[in-house]
Write a structure and sequence with these properties.
alpha+beta, five-stranded mixed beta sheet, elongated
Length: about 200
């Protein structure tokens, strides 16, 4: 890390940490207020993608679903698109060539990310001389991990109950040991539902 990157990192952290911590209670409250709607939205997305998998299995284009991958795209800050990609994989996992995916926007979190990026872009200019777009992006890529961590915790809590709801309709599509992974698209992920639980 260069001296300049270090400087941006420290200034950015000093600026953004209080903002992130300050709006956590509001974010949590908004989530609680809209919880039913949020869960229903996610459940509907999962039904759509499992129906796709069902059709693919009937056409012999896919095996039983062993892994559900919920991922964020590394290019989010650049594109301003914070939708999560939900993929269903058979035992081939990333080598599963029959793509079966849908997108879900957890707006209750992404609206805060967008607000923070706007705030940071506007306010960092006065603190770091001649800051470049890529430098802003570099910082924000690191910063949004705070939100992704929140998202992982949220999914860990709600995913089992949503899967319980849809499992009866798609029992023959899912492998008994199906697990859910959250992480960067085609990158590292952590198991949030599955065999790590006792």
């Amino acid at each position: 890390m260069t001296e300049r990157q270090q400087q941006i990192m420290e200034i950015g952290k000093g600026m953004m940490e209080p903002i992130f911590m300050g709006q956590l209670p509001e974010l949590m409250k908004n989530y609680k207020d809209g919880e039913t709607e949020i869960l229903t939205g996610l459940e509907e997305k999962l039904q759509v993608v499992f129906q796709k998998a069902q059709q693919m299995q009937k056409a012999d284009r896919k095996g039983k679903i062993c892994t559900m991958g919920i991922s964020y795209l590394q290019s989010s800050v650049l594109t301003g698109n914070y939708e999560l990609r939900i993929d269903l994989y058979d035992k081939e996992f990333y080598l599963d060539s029959a793509e079966c995916c849908t997108y879900w926007n957890p707006a209750f979190i992404t609206e805060y990310i967008q607000k923070d990026i706007k705030y940071f872009k506007y306010n960092i200019h006065g603190k770091v001389p001649q800051i470049r777009t890529y430098e802003i992006q570099e910082f924000m890529d690191g910063y949004i991990i705070n939100y992704l961590y929140l998202l992982a915790q949220f999914l860990e809590q709600i995913m089992p109950q949503i899967l319980c709801k849809i499992r009866p309709a798609f029992r023959e599509v899912m492998d008994d040991g199906m697990h859910v992974i959250f992480g960067e698209y085609m990158g590292k992920g952590m198991i949030i539902v599955g065999e790590t639980e006792e």
